[in-house]
Write a structure and sequence with these properties.
mainly alpha, 4 helices
């Protein structure tokens, strides 16, 4: 007879979470979390001012999913990483950042769609034209 252990988890508190407005907000949140991790921070659930509907790793996994699906490529990942580390988007009005700005918009648009499906980013409201 096999012995199985029963694990009882503590009850979770129903906390209302706030989804991100768009892919860029989610990416910069993830980037800030990564920078804090590199500085030694440890994250504890429920110890934040604005509860989010995911963990930072969920945003990373979503990026890697769209990469594996070939919706974005290595140049997109490089731009996301570079500007995520700077915590600022590329400036489309600066000639040397125009290509990066295009890759940035493309990657974050695709990330937003993936995160919307998971309820991490707000659904876009349909506008009447």
């Amino acid at each position: 007879m096999s012995s199985t252990k029963r694990i009882v988890l503590p009850p979770t508190h129903d906390v209302e979470t706030v989804p991100f407005a768009d892919g860029e907000e989610a990416w910069f949140w993830f980037s800030r979390c990564q920078l804090m991790r590199m500085d030694g921070a440890r994250f504890v659930a429920g110890m934040v001012e604005t509860p989010r509907p995911c963990d930072p790793d969920d945003v990373y996994r979503a990026v890697m999913d769209i990469y594996r699906q070939r919706l974005i490529g290595n140049p997109h990942l490089q731009v996301l990483g570079s500007y995520g580390e700077k915590l600022t988007p590329p400036d489309e009005y600066m000639r040397e950042e125009q290509k990066d700005a295009s890759l940035w918009r493309d990657a974050l648009g695709r990330l937003a769609v993936a995160l919307q499906k998971k309820g991490i980013v707000c659904k876009e409201e349909k506008r009447d034209e």
